[in-house]
Amino acid sequence: MRDIVDGLTTWRAAGVAFAVATVARTWQSAPRQPGAAMAVSVHGEVLGSISGGCVEGAVYELCRTAIRTGAAHTQTYGVSDDDALEVGLTCGGTIQVLVQPSVAMTELDEVLAAIRDGRPVATASVENAQLVIWPDRVAGSLGTPDLDDAVARQATGMLALGVTGTIHLGRQGQQRGDEVAVFVQSYVPPPRMIIFGAIDFAAAMARIGTFLGYHVTVCDARPVFATRARFPDVDDLVVRWPHVYLESTTVDDRTVLCVLTHDPKFDVPLLQVALRTSARYIGAMGSRRAHDDRMRRLREAGVPESALARLCSPIGLDLGARTPEETAVAIAAEITAQTWGGSGRPLSDLATPIHHT
């Protein structure tokens, strides 16, 4: 939904009716994960994608029907279905799609504004009924107060973790029941990517970080390099000593840290701080010789081996990269592999599932 929120906001401002199709559940090798969204307006315009082209044609028609009837609908597509070839889902997986007309979506304007502004909000949907959950309040209803309370409790926890998925409860909210399947979609601020070192490799890394959906910050102690002219599109540009800035800013377990300075006077104090954080990924650029020298200095500074084991250095996967842009791809590939448990090897060499849990 974050990818299409600007378009939906424009449609709302113009009074255009629409329907949103969202991937609610997946099994096996599904092309997109839960939360992927596609919208269709009453005029037939399309925003977003839910399957990379596999079932868009069929879901387009479901959205048109939802706009016309005002009713939500859930549809499952799988390769074993009789119409698998007709809708094009030939990847071997199964996806469940929830289609909701805009008239059935609770507090829609407030939800879109929260997503656009990066404020946390979650929606809990059962076809034509919906709850909206903010950290401090709840709106809407799924039918009964008991069910609303049970869903709100679980959805609040999912929102805190940034988790999207389906929960199963009894009709009155019983924890051991499974009569009601509720799709909970959490919208949280995008994860952070902090790039240290305002060099040409940082410019390429910032572009790919933005493309991947990160909130990108570039930090360098040298004001002559850390300029808006060189980094016009980053979210934040910081002129401070890297380790001082890192000590003062928020880092969580979704944060990615890319140390591209490859200068000991910056790297060593910065990595001492970085390796004490909960950052999901910490990578440092440099040659093999620079890496060995860096590790020696960090050990002399008292950094334990367990912390050093978290460091990805030299940064990136072995793609044979030469240019800043190719190097950024190699770094982004390593970040993705570490995030989802990928091996970094060619898929053609493997017999394991393509999509990791």
TrEMBL record:
Pfam families: XdhC_C, XdhC_CoxI
Gene3D superfamilies for this protein: NAD(P)-binding Rossmann-like Domain (3.40.50.720)
Residue ranges of domain XdhC- CoxI in the record: 11-78
InterPro entries according to UniProt: MoCofactor_Util/Proc, XdhC_CoxI, XdhC_Rossmann_dom
Domain of life assignment: Bacteria
XdhC Rossmann domain sequence ranges: 193-335
Name of the protein this chain belongs to: Xanthine dehydrogenase accessory factor
Provenance organism: Micromonospora vinacea
